[in-house]
Amino acid sequence: MELDALMQQRKYPNCSSFGKKWEVSSKTIQRDIEFMKYQLNAPIEYDALKRGFYYTEPSYMMSSVPMNEGELMALVIGARALEQYKGTPIAAKLESVLQKLSEILPDEITIHPAELFSRFSFSSPPAMPIRPKIWETVVKGLLSKRQLEITYQGKTSRVSPLHMANLQGAWYLFVRFYDYDNFRQIAIGRIETAKLLKEAVDDTGFDPNVFLSNTLYRFAGDNEPFTVKLVFDKAIADQVMELEWHPGQKTKTLKDGRVEMEFTAKGDVEVKRWIMAWGQYCTVKSPKWVKQMIDDEVDAMMLNRKK
User: Fold this and answer.
1) d(CA 307, CA 34)
2) Which of 1, 5, 161, 193 is deepest in the core (most CB within 10 A)?
């Protein structure tokens, strides 16, 4: 875009000076010029006396980014939604990117990104903040497929970073610890130090879709999944039916107005806490060990109340 502007103004940019300004090689600028000339059909020629490029047709204008107001709005709202990922460098950079994008949009765009940012808000569940340096090192390890040396909960280990996922607002890294065959899920916010190593990642046998399947809340480990059947009271039937609580849930309304739900999940502690959040309005039908686990928790709560 700047090359276009300079040639429009007859300032005759050349590969050497322009490359130095943008901190890239002159060959990179030459490729940009060739792209404009042969792909965008820009009427570009080189003036030997001026030592720079110019447009042979003064009326030529390079096409703007083809984006209407609806598309811009969708993009900004999507960027705004990413702000819920607190503690990462992502949100901090988005507004700057959108500002740069707005400068090259067609004239008919009347909505300014800054205005849209002030009109929409998003909230997310509590999550641990992540130090930018940790985030950047982990991302580099993932993208370059190189191992990391991390300090996690006071212990230093060598790991192969395999996949990163945001679960209910919190960022997790799936890794294989050195000299271990199984996969682990660790909270990125709990990583104390991270160092990029030269050794390649071993991702043999890892499938993120399998690992993340049957996740109810934030636990996506390789524990054995189990099927839970619950019945919800009529008083909260509408609340239960209007949301998707689990991607594999099966729900049906019973004749008396209650709702029956069945899903397969991992992580008995998370399942227990989720069921107990419904209080007296949720009854466990199966399995029996989940019902017993909740009964034991209620007994412990009553015992603490008496103390």
Assistant:
1) 80
2) 161
